[in-house]
Description:
The complex is a heterodimer of chains A (324) and B (224). By secondary structure, chain A is mostly helical. Chain A has helices at residues 5-45, 50-80, 88-111, 113-125, 130-144, 146-160, 168-206, 211-225, 227-241, 251-287, 292-322. Chain A is flat and about 65 Å long. Chain B has helices spanning 23-45, 53-73, 75-97, 112-133, 135-140, 150-186, 191-223; strands at residues 10-14, 17-21. Chain B has a two-stranded antiparallel ribbon. In chain B, helix 1 crosses helix 3 and helix 6 (150-186) runs antiparallel to helix 7. The A-B interface holds A 70, 73, 76-77, 138-139, 142-143, 146, 149-150, 152-153, 156-157, 160-161, 213, 216, 219-220, 223-224, 226-227, 230-231, 233-234, 292-293, 296-297, 300-301, 304, 307-308, 311-312, 314-315 and B 1-2, 4-5, 68, 71-72, 152, 155-156, 159, 162-163, 166-167, 170-171, 173-175, 177-178, 181-182, 185, 198, 202-203, 206, 209-210, 213-214, 217, 220-221, 224.
Amino acid sequence: MDMDALSAMRIAAYAGGGFAMGMGALGAAIGEGYTAAQANIAVSRNPQISGDIFKNMLVGQAVAESASIFALVVAILLLFFETPSAGYIQAASLMGAGMCMGFGALGSGMGSGFPSAETCLGIARQPMASTRLTTNMLIGSAVCQTPAILSMVVSLLLLFMQFKDIPFQPGWGAVIGAGLSTGLAAIGSGYGGGLAAGASCEGVARNPNSVGNVTTTMLVGQAVAQTSSIFGLLISFVLIFKSFPESQALSPAIALLSAGICMGFGGIGPGVGNGEVARGAVRWVARNTESAADLMRIMLVGQAVSQSTAIYAMVVSLVLIFVI
Amino acid sequence: MEELGKIHQLLFYIAGYPIRLNIEVMIMTWIVIVVLIVFGWLCSSRRAMVPNRFQIIGELLVSKLYELTEDAMGKYLAQTYAPLICALFMFLVLCNWLGIIPHLHEPTKDLNTPLSLGLMGFVIAHYAGIKSKGFKQYAREYFQPMFFMMPLNVIGELAKVVSISFRLFGNIMGGSIIITVVSYLTYSILLPPLLNAFFGLFVGTIQAFVFTMLTVVYISVQVK
Lengths: 324, 224
């Protein structure tokens, strides 16, 4: 079947838009449902303050929803925005943009359900600390959104960049790979950051005086857990901005595509694993504030070791891009 | 919308070599520096037992950041590095807040600013490590747990620079792109001020704090 560039672009835009919103709806819904479930438990434990818990649940759900709102923005842009130049490479990049945002919203949406759920439970346990808990939750959930924001950056770059001069043959692999690299790597980081934020809200509820130490440990833990999605962003940038020579063979395109896939899947595990490390550290900082400095050091070393697999994935991706 | 991801550059030649300067970023950085100097002057010019407003803000900032540095590094090292940490945090916060004023842009939106600050943190951390442990012990740590892990350990250290600077860059650039796109879609009605408050003030402060804390932590991990 032969088709012109314009209809190829339409097909890619519709498929990408559908994919972005469909996948983007998945994570946030799970996170919000988890929040509501824990809010029910919290209300049944302490019915007198059901108003506070209800308010907090709504705020937490609103923050958790922002990842899927990013997906909505990208989907609407894909459906209605007319890109000035038409070309097969542009069609491939629209497809990549959709996939990037779809996968990228998954982890952050699920992850930011944890802090809001733990905050609802915490308010039931410790109503006096509810302001501190809500502030901590907002900070934690906002940092959880970083991987989704990074995927949005990549998908908007793929949407608006002009790829006219880039040859189609290795180029399509590069743009789809760029989308997959950040999108997939964001899943683990978003989820892992959520684990850390959840533990910190639980910790503040147990020991409201530890809030300074707990928030600092949480932020550092989340930041390190995001490293794998930042590697994904780096590989995407290399794939988008490097120019590749034209070739008739299929293998260079597949190499670039698999560089993206390699970094993307390689980033999922370290993101979740680092989140687990941060969760443990944050939980015990709240219970044992005196050893906060030691706990943070051990957390960082543990995260660095569990991150080495993401570094292997990055090395293989860079080899696929630059050597082959 | 075509402005997305484009940077105004000044191009000139010195002895045939092209020199590119991101002129807009430099102007914005100088605005931040001037504001910081004026703020510092206001804080410290009329010190008194009963402090004025600026003195309170300045003392609060410095004492909180000093405490945080002391918690992570210990008393002795904090004396050396706390001024750097305070300056870094105040510079970054102001950089990230600059974008909420129309026609001004965050210097951190250009990768050059976070990357150079990240490199600065990297150099300082390793200098502190060599100084406190001696070069032999410092070099030996790269061959842990086994000697053939050396290249991967080196890559891991370099990856820290990449991750710390791309995190700041991605967040600030992402925020500004989202604001641009949403303003375009809604014809600048209602939503953009809220987005500015969220991405400019809130996320900007958090990311400045994360960057500062990670610099502190990287130094303290190298030293211990």
